[in-house]
Amino acid sequence: MTYIVNDACIACKYTDCVEVCPVDCFYEGENMLVIHPDECIDCGVCEPECPADAIRPDTEPEAEKWVEFNRKYSELWPVIITKKDPLPEAEERDGEGGKLEKYFSEAPGEGG
């Protein structure tokens, strides 16, 4: 099992999760984070840290597509290990549906 980040993270990008990850398997895009599924040790400490409930186990329905999504972008984006402020529109976008189609950016974040 691994954990994944789904579209609930898009346009919010809370980073509370990166500080608790013991293996630094989070990667930063311009407006979301992903988890490298081959680096995740399945400890689950990140899941309760996410205010947007965007981190889920890969055993949940529809998680398979997110495993591949997370794998793809974790190989393109820089690692992030330091907590940063969420995006300015985070509160407004938290819980909104259809964020992948509306807001997702393939651009990398700064990492760090």
From TrEMBL:
| Positions of region (Disordered) | 85-112
> What are the GO MF terms of this UniProt record?
3 iron, 4 sulfur cluster binding; 4 iron, 4 sulfur cluster binding; electron transfer activity; metal ion binding
Give yes or no: UniProt keyword Transport: yes
Q: Which cofactor does it need?
A: [3Fe-4S] cluster; [4Fe-4S] cluster
Basic and acidic residues bias: start-end ranges: 95-104
Keywords of this entry = 3Fe-4S, 4Fe-4S, Electron transport, Iron, Iron-sulfur, Metal-binding, Repeat, Transport
Q: Which PANTHER family match?
A: FERREDOXIN, OXIDOREDUCTASE
Sum up the protein's function in the record's words: Ferredoxins are iron-sulfur proteins that transfer electrons in a wide variety of metabolic reactions.
Indicate what this protein is called per its UniProt record: Ferredoxin
